[in-house]
């Protein structure tokens, strides 16, 4: 769709572009319909109460190195959905379909912070909220949760350690990002990666579009408003904690 015909007030998570809402997306609906017809979503077509009923999680935590491609601590100083593989697109369709199945239940889950959430927090403090999510099969430390950022940031030094080739970056023709000392920062490119929050069974995984920039930073990445909105996550700086709804209840990540 030509840019001049796009509705700038609507955004599609599937195409990572403006013009229409995700629930209006023709291509996503057709993909989900085809997957249902082919039986690829049978495991997701279950009774909602059975799906959300509390049950013992018997899965063992993976040993170090079994699940993650790598583990990044500090920096040293995609393909986008439109170009993603069929497997990645199908994974996203399953994610959206699964989301629709328990959306009403998630809305009934209140997210609140209590005195118990202050555990291990040294008060008073002015610390930022840093978490350790799994991004693109890499467990990443020092990821800043910043609801004031209008984009999700992946720093180039971090990107270079994640075993992705530069050719996977999608060229970005958008305006530079502002906010780093009020100076414009050119965008190296964009990449869409899976982001996993929480600890089993209270986990949630979404595809997140990151802008890769080449600037010095004490952080490895920034989860901004787009990511926090997609996870329906709520952060509390005083408690140094991030909470979000999952299929099994409220998940959380404590600040690092």
Describe the structure.
The protein is an alpha+beta fold. Helix content is 20%, strand content 27%. The chain is globular. 25% of the residues are buried. The model is unreliable at 1-5, 51-60 and 73-85 (pLDDT under 50).
**Quaternary status of these chains?**
single chain
Strand order of the largest sheet: 3-6-5-11-12-8-13-7-4
If helices are DSSP runs of H or I spanning 4 or more residues, what is the number of helices? 5
Give the proportion of residues in helices. Answer: 10-25%
SSE arrangement, N to C: EEHHEHEEEEEHEEEEEHEEE
Q: Determine the mean pLDDT.
A: 76
Radius of gyration: 19 Å
Low-pLDDT parts are 1-5, 51-60, 73-85
Task: Tell me the total number of β-strands.
Answer: 16
Could you tell me the strand content as a percent range? 25-35%
Main sheet attributes: strand count, strand direction, barrel closure: 9 strands, mixed
Structural class: alpha+beta
Tell me the overall shape. globular
**N/C terminus separation:** 43 Å
Describe the structure using short key phrases.
256 residues, nine-stranded mixed sheet, 5 helices
């Amino acid at each position: 769709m030509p840019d001049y015909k796009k509705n700038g007030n609507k955004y599609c998570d599937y195409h990572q572009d403006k013009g229409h809402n995700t629930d209006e997306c023709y291509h996503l609906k057709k993909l989900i319909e085809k997957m249902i017809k082919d039986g690829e979503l049978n495991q997701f077509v279950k009774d909602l109460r059975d799906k959300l009923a509390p049950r013992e999680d018997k899965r063992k935590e993976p040993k170090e190195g079994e699940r993650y491609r790598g583990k990044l601590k500090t920096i040293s100083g995609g393909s986008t959905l439109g170009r993603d593989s069929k497997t990645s697109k199908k994974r996203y369709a399953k994610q959206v379909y699964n989301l629709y199945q328990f959306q009403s239940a998630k809305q009934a889950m209140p997210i609140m912070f209590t005195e118990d959430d202050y555990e291990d927090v040294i008060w008073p403090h002015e610390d930022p909220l840093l978490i350790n999510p799994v991004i693109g099969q890499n467990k990443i430390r020092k990821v800043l949760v910043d609801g004031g950022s209008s984009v999700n940031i992946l720093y180039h030094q971090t990107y270079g350690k994640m075993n992705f080739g530069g050719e996977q970056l999608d060229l970005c023709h958008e305006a530079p990002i502002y906010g780093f000392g009020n100076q414009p920062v050119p965008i190296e490119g964009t990449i869409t990666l899976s982001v996993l929050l929480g600890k089993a069974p209270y986990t949630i995984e979404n595809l997140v579009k990151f802008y890769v920039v080449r600037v010095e930073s004490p952080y490895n990445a920034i989860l901004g408003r787009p990511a926090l909105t997609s996870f329906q996550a709520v952060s509390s700086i005083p408690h140094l904690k991030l909470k979000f709804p999952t299929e099994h209840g409220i998940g959380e990540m404590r600040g690092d």
